[in-house]
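Working notes for the structural subgroup meeting. M.R. asked for a predicted model of this chain before we commit to crystallization trials. I am recording the input and output together here so anyone reviewing the notebook later can reproduce the run.

Input as submitted:
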Amino acid sequence: VLTLLLRAGGMSWFDATCHAFAAVATGGFSTQSTSVAAYSSLYIEICLIVFMFLSATNFALHYRALHGRWPYAKDAEFRFYFFYWLISCLLLTLIVWRSIHPDNLAHAARDAFFSGTSLLTTTGFWTADFDLWPASAKIILVLAMLVGGCAGSTAGAIKQVRVLVVLKRIVRGIWQFMHPQAVLPLKLGRQHIEPTVADHISTYFGLYLLVFALASLGVSCFTDGETALSAVAATLGGVGPGFSVAGAMETYAPFAAPAKVIFILCMLM
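Returned structure, recorded in token form:
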């Protein structure tokens, strides 16, 4: 479906097929050196935003939808994913509008929603040089690269459901501290989460952040901190572009060999 839509938008059959594979697999590799920016087409960007978002959604939900049910609104992870995506993109729009395109809100929204969706879903397409955006926008994008899409999707990184469970455990821990006698089961929607499952999720979450911190420390020996943090987040989450030396307009070629070894290990992990 995406191949046909992109072809209708003016792409060649070859480009449409390659970009469809790269979007649905949230791989993001383009046939153009300037990625999706080469087409300068709002229609193509909207198509890719929709399909990147859907590809980072749990495919079990799509399966149920194809069988006549509509499970999205009932799924706790999808609701969290949707609002995380929407709030992130709206904040990016506000930042880009005030700092980059003060006279063109539509252009700011276009760049913000495409970049926000691309990095949150760990796809890695780009249409704007977000390396020029303010630090606040970069922080939102790095957090998006760390969180990623839903479990059961093609997206990488930590995954929305794990972040949601960890946040629920934090809230429950605070409430338990205030009310020691309270019995507070951990729930995801209507489903109870077993303590062992919650422990495994917390362990995974902590291990991911530990690897991120250690790899960033290692890479920072060969480049600046901004580049190190964003490049490790991008390679560990399977995103692609980071900031500065690893920015969307750049490549990973300039990095020293030891830094490239760390990136390879991050991608494999």
